[in-house]
Amino acid sequence: MALDGAPAPRTVAAFDFDGTLTHHDTLVPFLLRVRGRAPVARALLGASPVLLRTAAGRESRRRAKEALLIRTLRGWWLDELRPVAAEFAREVVEKHLRPDRLARLRWHQAQGHQVVLVSASPELYVAAAGELLGCTATLASRLEVDRRGRLTGRLFGANVRGAEKERLLRDWLGAAPARLWAYGDSEGDAEMLAMAEVGVRLHGGDTLTAEP
């Protein structure tokens, strides 16, 4: 308890997903699971002009992501993809998480901290991974669905990267005081790390101890 009798502020640990908890990005592996190698290869080739402009900093990451999603997921029923996403999430959690990063997440949970996944990858499978990990919430990019329940290939709302990660996390935290830890591995996590009391910027070879 605080000295004035008010409850002590809660502690929240926000984790980026791809490259922070996982060994690698997950979007293309998910698309491979859904569509197979040849269709995804054709989609990457078709989207290559946008992907190249994005790599050169002349196009938004949202446009690049949508260019790929339109070629791979447009027209698919959302309900048809949910079980595939759940299976994919289970495989990622069981086989493709970095053990040291997972150990840190488990440490936060053991301390009674709330754990939130904040990711630019599709909520469709990141939320399923969050449930398997026992996370409190998942804040991730949402796929647009038409009135019939089919994916359009576009995002619903913003791509959850950079300032959007900070905005969503601030909205989720609300006005109640909280001590925030944040973990990320890229420039897309910079704003989230900057808002945290403890911001941990990770690089590919960095290893976390189970306890800070």
Summed up, what is this model?
The protein has helices spanning 27-35, 37-46, 48-55, 61-72, 78-95, 99-110, 123-133, 163-173, 190-195, and strands at residues 10-15, 114-122, 137-145, 151-156, 178-184, 198-201.
Q: Give helix and strand order, one letter per element, not per position.
A: EHHHHHHEHEEHEHE
Cα-based radius of gyration, to the nearest Å? 18 Å
Tally of individual helices: 9
Q: What's the total count of β strands?
A: 6
Number of domains: 1
Strand order, main sheet: write it out.
4-3-2-1-5-6
Instruction: Let me know the CATH homologous superfamily.
Output: HAD superfamily/HAD-like
Mean pLDDT: 94
CATH architecture, please?
A: 3-Layer(aba) Sandwich
Shape: globular
CATH class call: Alpha Beta
Strand content: 15-25%
State the end-to-end CA separation: 23 Å
